[in-house]
Amino acid sequence: MKAAVYTRRVYAMEKELERMQVSLPMYALQDIGQYYARDEVKIVAGRGMKYNGRLLSYYDGEKIVLARNGRKASVVLHEVAHSLAGFAAGHGPKFMRHYCRLLVVAGVIGGYALEALLHKYNIRVPVKQIRLDRGSEVT
Ligand SMILES: [Zn+2]
């Protein structure tokens, strides 16, 4: 599948996922992100990066910058997943495995609900590898 198609599907799925969550203060997002990210990755508030007319949160290789509209747990975990998967992974399967594992183990969404959400947006993540129904045992 083309990378751009994958990214569009992931962003569409995330729009729905973000509507399910409350906004969190920066200290909470830093606690959540820092727990799963490598120690050297810093999490800061910032303006964000312009993409299709919106300001998006991003990871630049050293720090995660959270835009004002991105103060949700899934957003910081999305960027943590980039830091773990590496830039070359884009939003492809390797990134999605990290991201889905983080969403479940951090308690953002239950495994079955996430599985249904992925299915709804036609995103295929190998269930065998992420074991959505056993979030705490994910490897
Ligand atoms: Zn991303």
Helix-residue proportion: 40-55%
Q: What is the number of beta strands? A: 5
Strand content is 5-15%
The largest sheet has its strands arranged as: 1-5-4
- What's the quaternary structure here? single chain
Number of domains: 1
Integer-rounded radius of gyration: 14 Å
**How does the major sheet shape up?**
3 strands, mixed
In the predicted model, the low-confidence regions spanning at least 5 consecutive residues are 135-139
Q: Which ligands occur here?
A: zinc ion
Shape, principal axes of CA atoms? globular
Secondary-structure content class: mainly alpha
Helical run tally: 6
The first-to-last residue Cα distance is: 25 Å
Helix/strand order: HHEEEEEHHHH
Average pLDDT: 89
What do you see in this structure?
Strand 2 and strand 3 (54-56) form a beta hairpin. This protein has 139 residues and is mostly helical. The strands form two sheets. A three-stranded mixed β-sheet has the order 1-5-4, covered by helices on one side. A two-stranded antiparallel ribbon has the order 2-3. It has one domain (3-137). The longest helix is centred in the N-terminal third of the chain and has 17 residues, at 3-19. The protein is 49% helix and 12% strand. Zinc ion (ZN) binds next to helix 3.
